[in-house]
Design a protein that fits this description.
It is a single chain. The chain is an alpha/beta fold. The chain has a domain of about 150 residues: Orthogonal Bundle (Isoleucyl-tRNA Synthetase, Domain 1), CATH 1.10.730. About 45% of the residues lie in helices and about 15% in strands. It has 19 helices and 18 strands. The strands form five sheets. It has a six-stranded parallel β-sheet with strand order 3-2-1-14-15-9, with helices on both faces. It has a four-stranded antiparallel β-sheet with strand order 5-4-8-10, with helices on one face. Strands 11-13-12 form a three-stranded antiparallel β-sheet. α2 packs across α3 and α13 packs antiparallel against α18. Bound molecules: ligand ME8. The site of ligand ME8 has 21 residues, from β1, α1, α7 and β14.
């Protein structure tokens, strides 16, 4: 099966923080999972570089918008590399920038198609606009604050009056509602689906899709005084990366996308405007839009503009790469908001990685090294089945399908706990003392086989550490996919193992040096 997954393309007004890393890691986990299930995966991310927000940020810094975009786009690329995103060589990974010619041509082609079909008209816009959100707001949506009118998101708004092209969004309300009805999985989670349905039921107005009062954008085909509204430009990235409007092999294989992953702040753009644009252009709609929650710090959304952002690099440096990926996926049910704290992170890492999975691997592998001559001990699949019982592959798949990463990881932690209980109950060290070497071998075999399965299953979330564990078990590179979970591919007794090394160290807060004598 072909599987196409996308992250939002991030604004280049600033550097990435863990909110961005969160979305991208979640997509990377799904991309790796599908690859391990045998799918042909395309994974797209990138940067959203036009618009007033970027233009304004550049002006404030005294640089050109292009220079700011170049610098920050590079930071987003580095963030992806740092978080091990899109690095699986079997995944078709792409990073698109909206200033690239391939995107500009494609976005203009989409515009022309919608215009040819009669869905674009020229008029003039008079109303409120929030640059921070790059969004139009109606008077009734605004809130009065001591500092003046604000968007419901808290962003400042300004009054805009200018000639503008409009997209006939008002004609799509019923079609969208019918689509949501017929495709109940199109918007997830359920709470977002309900929110979108009631928004559309409230009536849709035509949408202003061009601007004339600044110039940092893609020219409207045939009327270059106008530039395209940055959201139309940005959404088009999902098609331009596939080569639209050409009939490319990527278009044939990967459109419609299987999943657009977004934060809940931008669900309306993806679940209302984007499907309407696609309907207008006679293109099939994506199968699913999933809106996850926000990371907050002391209850406030983490964002650069609020000055409370945590840099992904800091966490990776302090806690380790896979530990950071694990924490982000495990801590909060995907879809809910989560409050970030170092304490929460240390607890997760120590209790589930170091003390549970790590300890299981370390105890088992060092006993095998010491007592079995560093070779996989004699045991059978039947022995192994008592180590961890009931690995439920279907449940794991269902949890991934629902983006329930916390449950997916939680089940694996449960398997590791079971194996740890088994080790304590069977006490292979005591069997050794009593000279029951055959029984000890069987127990260690069962444990090694449990670890093999745990490492295979956890690969999407922690690719580095799981591959280290699989290396320590001498599992061949070509036997690490989900199909290899089955007994047919169980460890072979007698295979020589490399010397064991700890994979999940315990995190100990460095003591603060208070100086002095
Ligand atoms: O909206 N918690 O870009 P953006 C969780 N360019 N996720 C967060 C987050 C937080 N505190 N902060 C950001 C844009 N995100 C547009 C998108 S797509 C065609 C155009 C994540 O740089 C989350 O995925 O503001 C959110 O939707 C996205 O970053 C917004 O990134």
């Amino acid at each position: 099966m072909n599987y196409f997954i996308t992250t939002p393309i991030y604004y280049v007004n600033d550097r990435p923080h863990i909110g961005h890393a969160y979305t991208s890691v979640a997509c990377d986990v799904l991309a790796r999972f599908h690859r391990l299930m045998g799918d042909n995966v395309k994974f797209l991310t990138g940067t959203d570089e036009h618009g007033q927000k970027v233009e304004k940020s550049a002006a404030a810094l005294g640089v050109t918008p292009k220079a700011l975009a170049d610098a920050n786009s590079q930071h987003f690329k580095e963030m992806a590399a740092l978080m091990n995103i899109g690095t699986d060589p079997h995944i078709n990974f792409d990073f698109i920038r909206t200033t690239e010619p391939r995107h500009v041509q494609s976005a203009q082609a989409l515009w022309k198609k919608m215009a040819d079909k009669g869905f674009i008209t020229l008029g003039s816009y008079a109303g409120w606009y929030a640059v921070r959100d790059e969004a139009y707001y109606q008077e009734g949506e605004l809130i009065d604050t001591p500092n003046g009118k604000r968007a419901p998101t808290g962003a400042e708004v300004e009054w805009v009056e200018e000639p503008s092209y409009f997209f006939k969004l008002s004609e799509f309300g019923d079609k969208l509602l019918a689509y949501y009805e017929q495709n109940p999985d199109f918007i997830a989670p359920e709470s977002r689906r309900n929110e979108i349905i009631s928004f559309v039921k409230g009536g849709l107005r035509d949408l202003s899709i061009s601007r004339t009062t600044f110039s940092w954008g893609i020219p409207v085909p045939g009327d270059e005084k106008h530039i395209m509204y940055v959201w139309l430009d940005a959404l088009a990235n999902y098609l331009s990366a596939l080569g639209y409007p050409e009939n490319t092999p990527d278009m044939a294989a990967f459109w419609p996308a299987n999943l657009h992953m977004v934060g809940k702040d931008i669900i309306r753009f993806h679940a209302v405007y984007w499907p309407a644009f696609l309907m207008a252009a006679d293109l099939p709609l994506p199968r699913r839009v999933f809106a996850h929650g926000w990371w907050t710090i002391e209850g406030e959304k983490m964002s650069k503009s609020l000055g409370n952002a945590v840099a992904p690099g800091e966490l990776v440096q302090d806690f380790g790469l896979d530990q950071t990926r694990y924490f982000l996926m495990r801590e909060v049910p995907f879809g809910n908001d989560g409050n970030f704290s170092r304490e929460g992170m240390i607890n997760r890492i120590n209790s589930e990685l170091a003390n549970n999975i790590g300890n299981l691997a370390q105890r088992t592998l060092s006993m095998i090294q010491k007592n079995c001559g560093g070779r996989i001990p004699n045991g059978t699949v039947a022995d192994a089945e008592v180590g961890i019982t009931g690995v439920d592959k279907d449940k794991l798949i269902q949890n991934m399908d629902k983006c329930a990463f916390d449950k997916y990881a939680g089940d694996i932690v449960k398997y590791a706990s079971q194996a740890n209980e088994y080790i304590d109950k069977k006490a292979p060290w005591a069997l050794k003392k009593q000279g029951e070497l055959e029984e000890m071998g069987k127990v260690l075999y069962a444990l090694a086989e449990s670890i093999r399965k745990i490492a295979i299953m956890i690969q999407p979330i922690m690719p580095h550490s799981s591959s280290k564990v699989l290396d320590l078990l001498a599992v061949p590179e070509n036997q690490r996919s989900f199909a290899h979970l089955s007994a047919e591919f169980a460890l072979l007794p007698g295979v020589v193992l490399p010397p064991p090394e700890p994979v999940f160290p315990r995190f100990v807060e460095k003591s603060v040096d208070l100086g002095g004598a």
